[in-house]
Amino acid sequence: MVDFSKIEKKWQKRWEEKKVFQVKDNPKKKKFYVLEMFPYPSGSGLHMGHAFNYTIGDIYARFKRMMGFNVLYPVGYDSFGLPAENAAILAKEHPKKFTENSIKNFIRQQKEIGLSYDWNRLLMTHTPEYYKWNQYFFLKFFENGLVYKDKASVNWCPKCDTVLANEQVHNGKCWRHKDTDVETKQLEQWFIKTTKYAEELLNDIEKLQWPERIKIMQENWIGKSHGTEIDFEINTNSNFVLLHGFTGSPDANFFPWLKKELENKGCKVSVPRLPNSNNPDIIEQVNYVINNYSFNENTVLLGHSLGSVVALKVLEKLNKPIKKLVLAAGFCEPKFKDKKRPFEERFNWKFDFEKIKNNIQSVIILRARNDSAVPAERSDKIKEKIGGIIIDFEAEDDHICGNKEPEVLKNCLNLFPIFTTRPDTLFGVTFMVISAQHPRLYEIVTKEQKKEVDNFLKKIKSTKEEDIAQLEKDGVFTGSYAIHPLTNQKIPVYAGNFVIAEYGSGMVMAVPAHDQRDFEFARKYKLPIKLVIQSKDKKIGEKNLKEAFVDNGILVNSEKFNGLNSEEAKIRITKELENKKLGKPTVNYKLRDWLISRQRYWGTPIPIIYCDDCGIVSVPEKDLPVKLPDKVEFGKGNPLTTNKGFVNVKCPKCKKNAKRETDTMDTFFDSSWYFLRYCDNKNSKNPFDIKKIDYWMPVNQYIGGAEHACMHLIYARFFTKALRDLSYVKIDEPFIKLFNQGMLHGEDGFVMSKSRGNVVLPETVSREYGMDTARLFLISGAAPDKDMEWSSKGVEGSLRFVKRLIEYTPNVKLGKTVKKVESKLNKTIKEVTKDIEDFRYNFAVIKIRDLFDSLGEEINKKDLEKFLKLVHPFCPHITEELWEQIGNKSFLSLEKWPEYDESKIDVKYEQAEKAFTNLISDITNVINVMKEKQGKEFNKVYVYSLPNEMEYYDSKDLSNRVNKEVIVYSVSDKNKHDPENKSKRAKPGKPAIFLE
Fold first, then answer.
1. Bond into 272 cis (ω within 30)
2. pLDDT tens, residue by residue, 185-222
3. Is the dihedral of CA 410, 415, 417, 422 positive or negative?
4. Using the 8-state DSSP alphabet, how is residue 471 labeled?
5. Is pLDDT at 467 greater than 60 in this prediction?
6. How far is CA 776 from the centre of its chain?
7. Angle between helices 48-66 and 771-778 (to 10 degrees)
8. Based on C-alpha coordinates, what's the Rg of the chain?
């Protein structure tokens, strides 16, 4: 009886003691970086489905190591995240303790599988040594304009008083309080500007040696579309008060033009001439505005430059809210880029921001990239205090002082740029739909419709896009109308549950005659359906439309564009919109900026401090890491807010009392650069040494599931490109090759999972069959990229091979290898090398087992060693043991992969081997057919071969392979036993067969 466990422990211990798999940088040696996707250490530990994935990587790493490469094969744990927090809450155990116990179990199990990891490279993302660098990169991105804060929809549980992840929402209810409806709320969140790299991410896909389906999935996720952006104005009966700045007047800069443009649209516009603009007194100017102008729920208040300060002070004094505040080149503290202003010292720069927030329904902050006076961070300070949207643009003149400033007009009005790939259907627009989760929704909701909209929003229970896609298309009228850009017709605007807030402008123009989703919505709410594209083949009419006509065709009901075909109309209508400055050709992407804020505990704290005077302040690098406190309370909102020692800090700039950010980072941040840290995981001064990155990166072979095609792989690619542009790396892409493993199914036919109760544990397999047997079975049944089923019978088959190998190796006579076996050995080395390289492990195993069956009772020691080397990546423990038993002192793991000698591959033996294999198959088939026909067992098999092929068929070998006595005759043998004269049927390469 083989004690597999004893052998496994012996070699695992020796590998560890001698640091066999530890790797060092060696520029003189060619590197190869093998990596499996960052594992999450679940409390339930590993099962054989996980072992399947890791075995695939380990075989490849061992193979490449033996091929002479300097192989980096590291391991770590993506140990932050929601599952650990949820499980810890349920178990009433701290997430840190829960996670570290899970990791200990994972390490034990992974070592038992015999994985050749460099354990010296171990990473755990929940350690301060790792997440310090998460915080460092966040700050670097922030400094370089790749991080910003904005409103976004979140799932909110009123009973938990906290944000829920999509995974925590079940059928619209909170996972902890199944009687509590989840609500959607708009909260300020941190975003990373992944869209900046959309075009490069898309273009570089063709460079990747990845599975085609993954490349297609990434292309679709990025979703580049060529189309037209069309400005739709939403008329909300606004009245305007426009406030000029220091030394300004109603007659200067863009004010005369803006007033005229607004009045042409039927708006009431007031442009106060603020007193003493050359030597302003803020109280005097504010009182002048309050006493001479009226404000109501439809007022839009614009402040330009110093006028923004006046606007903020006016809002402090109002008793009821206005519709919108627009700040152009605004500021709320006297810090400028160019020169000091005389009003800096004498103004009171304190604001009641809470009162201001309560007096505005929405805020738009216009920040010009070419502003030489107001620093960009002044806009961030205002937004941090009162919220709103920052719009960055190139102004017509410095400090937004052009005679015309279209961006100012656009944002004074409720102009929504709508993206469409079908501008040819523009005249068929009969309603608009804005996302129910749009941050500007309430700008266009009228007083009369507010209650109805509120009730509608309460029905929406999830922000998850998949949930939204499955909802019945629902909507509610906002009370507002959009103005058609070419016909000036009024078009009703609905809020809908099926429009994604982050795609395009978060609003769509609905053309029900030519879009099926719009068609269904129009039928449901009895909205007009206007046909504007006529089929070229069959005339259709509005009254008998049973579904939308979505193909191209000829334009009708489209004024001067009637008669054009769709493609030409797209160009002509876009040109018309351009001439009227109401639209333009544009490219749009489905890829959205990455929302990384999580209102959860178990993640990297975001290194930001909020100061009443200084606004948003970065934690200084010297103070990193911002450590996650151990003491928090769960179930009372965001857990971090419950630790006052963590929350309350001093501002790094002014040293006054301030508060920390209590959001933590999305754990995808952790896994977007971990492959870089493996290259230099002990570095305490930097995230990594660039020289080490130059040597090891990119990853040569990445292995993991196809389910990570769009999130993790997109973020990792983005991160690499962003770090390249910040001079941290020189590469464009992190992973040269990608391999997607299949899924292991239990014997019940379902994917192996603890929840189904169909898992097989590694320790159980090791005890019953030996881990090498399991490894061999896992990659024998099918190609590693295909799903396979765990089978006790199949494992038994692998066990028989392993036992035969153990019995054969120490007992075989070491002498000479016959030429036939020598030929087969060299041929097998050649083919197996290619099979492993191409992840055709199942073919490699078939050829290795076939070679083993052909080995004789005597073999040259070098040839036996070559054979063990072929088996080693699949069965590392047993082969190390056998390697030692035949007299070797070295580790087989570090031996050189066998080379084949082409001159020793004899074609004649190949033909003989093929004939031999075919004969076995023929004998098996004949036995089965005859057994079925006659219903009896046959004890002897007689084979009749042509004389020149007799050497192909060894009776003893054949008997062993078919488990029957096989006697081989030449057809010319006069003494052959052939009662039915079957020998006459023998052909070249096809002997005749007789059963008895």
1. no
2. 778 889 999 999 999 999 999 999 999 999 999 999 99
3. negative
4. S
5. no
6. 32
7. 90
8. 37
